[in-house]
């Protein structure tokens, strides 16, 4: 796959002769991971594609001024997460939907999604995750599915490690409760 380190990609990006090539490599390196991260937030394949496209447009426009205060991939995740949350907020506002209706809409989207190939247990887990508040859902997905460290999640979400651990703990308890009820 992509053998260049993030630092090498940044150096290449800052060189006008290799800028476009470096960006294409960066997209190839992170597109799938970011897609699945966003997909767990917005659920719909088409919506996730739109959010990822917007994410990479923002990355293209901001990469020149990336200060390297954080790791490149956590910076990319932060942009993708913010884009996904902004997308959901616009969707709620556009349709004047309360949070509960958005959760039900996402749940119905998941059930009818031709790209979802999980079994009944997986569907049940995904529905339980959708019942979580947005922040807990994102923290749970990053920790459980993407196996990120709390330090990385903290960098992406701008939240303390202690608060993230609490969010994850509450999310796990709520999911367990939901799964026991059914």
How does the SSE layout of this entry go?
Layout: H1 6-13, H2 19-42, H3 45-62, H4 72-94, H5 99-112, H6 120-130, H7 134-145, H8 150-157, H9 161-181
Notes on the structure:
It is a single chain. The chain is an all-alpha fold. The protein has 2 domains: 1-96, Rna Polymerase Sigma Factor, Chain: A, CATH 1.10.1740; 118-182, Arc Repressor Mutant, subunit A (Orthogonal Bundle), CATH 1.10.10.10. It contains 9 helices and no strands. Helix 3 crosses helix 4 and helix 7 (134-145) crosses helix 9.
Summary tags:
Arc Repressor Mutant, subunit A; 2 domains; Rna Polymerase Sigma Factor, Chain: A; mainly alpha; 182 residues
Name given to the CATH architecture of the largest domain: Orthogonal Bundle
* Number of β-strand runs: 0
Strand content is under 5%
CATH homologous superfamily assignment of the largest domain? RNA polymerase sigma factor, region 2, helix turn helix motif
Order of helix and strand elements from N to C terminus: HHHHHHHHH
Measured as a percent range, the helix fraction is over 70%
Structural class by helix and strand composition: mainly alpha
What is the radius of gyration computed over CA atoms, rounded to a whole number of angstroms? Answer: 17 Å
Number of helices: 9
Low-confidence stretches: none
Tell me the CATH topology of the largest domain.
Answer: Rna Polymerase Sigma Factor, Chain: A
Major sheet size, sense and barrel closure: none
- Overall CATH class of the largest domain: Mainly Alpha
Characterize the overall form. globular
- Compute the separation of the termini in Å: 42 Å
What's the mean pLDDT score?
86
* Domain module count: 2
């Amino acid at each position: 796959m992509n053998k260049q380190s993030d630092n090498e990609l940044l150096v290449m990006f800052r060189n006008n002769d290799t800028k476009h090539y470096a960006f294409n490599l960066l997209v190839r390196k992170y597109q799938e991971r970011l897609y699945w991260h966003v997909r767990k937030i917005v659920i719909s394949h088409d919506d996730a594609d739109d959010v990822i496209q917007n994410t990479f447009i923002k990355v293209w426009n901001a990469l020149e001024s990336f200060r390297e205060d954080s790791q490149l991939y956590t910076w990319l995740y932060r942009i993708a997460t913010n884009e996904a949350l902004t997308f959901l907020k616009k969707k709620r506002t556009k349709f004047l939907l309360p949070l509960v209706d958005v959760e039900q809409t996402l749940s119905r989207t998941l059930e009818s999604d031709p790209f979802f190939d999980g079994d009944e247990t997986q569907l049940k887990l995904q529905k339980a995750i959708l019942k979580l508040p947005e922040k807990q859902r994102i923290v749970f997905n990053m920790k459980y599915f993407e196996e990120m460290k709390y330090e990385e999640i903290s960098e992406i979400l701008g939240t303390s490690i202690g608060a993230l651990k609490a969010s994850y703990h509450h999310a796990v308890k709520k999911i367990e409760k939901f799964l026991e009820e059914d």
